[in-house]
Predict the structure.
Amino acid sequence: MPEDWDRAVAVAAHPDDLEYGLASAVARWTGQRKHVSYLLATRGEAGIAGLPPDQVGPLRVEEERRGAALVGVTEVEFLDHPDGLVEYGTALRRDLAAAFRRLQPQVIITMNFDLTWGEEGPVNHADHRAVGLATLDACRDAANGWVFPEAGPPCTDIRDAYVATAGAPTHFVDVTDTIDAGVASLREHRAYIEGLGREFDPDEFLKNLAGYAGLGAACEYAVALRRYPMG
Ligand SMILES: [Zn+2]
């Protein structure tokens, strides 16, 4: 993946989404003194079975901020859409476009929004599908001053969006030197991982994923992304 840019925004639906693989790449970029912000559609308040949303929301916001800090990200914004019920539509596109106009990124990164994880894998979360598609559309919205004119002056610098953990990757980021920071970042999501109610080892999980991507990228560990040029 080209690295001739200075500012990126990474967009996801929930706290922890960006930590499932992408954070290792973020650690590489912030190590190059690039500026990366996180933008999350929800606070993840409906994400832990048995714990009520009013307790879970603040907990997961804190986990996200701590995990982000471990990969050099200090700017984490929450758009406060309802967890589990995020809708693709103009409200979400407006919130994303307004954030892009404030943050003025050149590159947008988001997560897989395919219907399924892989060809025969489980159905992807409805929030992931809504947020991923709206993120791509909001790149164009942000550049068009006639769309959402109340949401600040246009942002015309977005050249490409990249989607992580999607099928048919076109680009790779070598994360061999930063995967441990990515693992530490995922480990910060303690309440979420405990709430899974089963054994889960972030180190093993992320190294398997990145090791597999690394096979196609001729390095030990990689993050695979699919590029969507913005024209
Ligand atoms: Zn998620």
Notes: The chain is about 40% helix and 15% strand.
